[in-house]
Amino acid sequence: MINFQHIFDKFNDLTVMVIGDVMVDAYMWGKVNRISPEAPVPILASMQREHRLGGAANVALNLQALGATPLLCSVIGNDSEGEIFMKTLGANGLTRLGMLADSTRITTTKTRVIAGTQHLLRIDEETTKPLHEALEKAFFARIEQLIASEKIDAIIFEDYDKGVITPGVISRAVALANARKIPTLVDPKKRNFLEYRNVTLFKPNFKELCEGLKEDVDKHSYDAIFEAARKINRQMGVRYAMVTLSERGVLVSDGEQYSAIPAALRNITDVSGAGDTVISVASLCLAAGMAIPMAAAVANLAGGLVCEKVGVVPVDKKLLLEECLKKLA
């Protein structure tokens, strides 16, 4: 029988490196009382603005909420949005050790314009170009230095296809981690999908699985999903493929067999950030020594919990422990 309290206590001693694309999630709230005379669009009387950490930084916030020490590694622009990101990072108690700012990049910013509870518009400012060669070299040097100087218990690649994660960064960081027996976990996107060779855990959602393999897979057949996941295991040298299936739960494959973990019945409010929570919890469970089927079950519970909340919020450690004791013990 698993001692969940002991496992959750171990989270407090773990340090997880998060490599990936970070962004500023900006919000502008206000009221709409009239339509513009210039065009048939509403006029927002802006009343409040807020900046939050997004992308890979949300994974860091989830790790922090679970008691672990996150070490965020990314590249942002040397711009005003980058200054906002770094200030927000510090306000949340996260270290800047793994961060680089460069004038050839812009800081990804997603601004949501909201009137009352109505989401009117989202404005994205970003570049998706891969890091240029010199910057890629400097970025990996920072990663390498931190792996050498810090006690890293797991490494997460949080890929949003914004260009910070390149094939070169992937191959060199994975090789370094494997040489040091550090587990590597991946939340992939389309561009680098097939580049993540020899990682410990690869976690696409169903849409990413189909797009990454360029296959139509029957979502209602666990056997069909397993056949697709097994290709990831065998062709990419991935130890575990964990496919998230929203209302159908999670399927985990080791290339020989699979475990299907159904989703708990939830009052789903907002799925934003659920994938960030799942990869965060899975990384800590594996680093703490939990077997993969149970780690997937705990991560599945965590993803469901955050879907009950509005907006992108980190998982509640106490509530997750209660759920594990109630449903998995």
Can you describe this structure?
With 329 residues, the protein is α/β, with parallel strands linked by helices. Mean pLDDT is 92; it is low at 267-271. The protein starts with a helix and ends with a helix. Strand 6 (109-115) and strand 7 (118-125) form a beta hairpin. It is globular and about 65 Å long. Helix 4 runs parallel beside helix 5 (167-179), helix 8 (274-287) packs antiparallel against helix 9 (292-306) and helix 9 crosses helix 10 (317-327). The chain is 37% helix and 26% strand. It has one domain (4-22, 56-100, 127-327): Ribokinase (UDP-N-acetylmuramoyl-L-alanine:D-glutamate ligase, 3-Layer(aba) Sandwich), CATH 3.40.1190.20. A nine-stranded mixed beta sheet has the order 5-4-1-8-9-10-11-12-13, sandwiched between helices. A four-stranded mixed beta sheet has the order 3-2-6-7. The longest helix has 17 residues, at 133-149.
Concise synopsis of the structure shown:
This protein is an alpha/beta fold and 329 residues long.
Computed Rg: 20 Å
Strand line-up in the sheet with most strands = 5-4-1-8-9-10-11-12-13
Helix/sheet category: alpha/beta
What is the global morphology? globular
CATH topology: UDP-N-acetylmuramoyl-L-alanine:D-glutamate ligase
Strand tally is: 13
Low-pLDDT stretches:
267-271
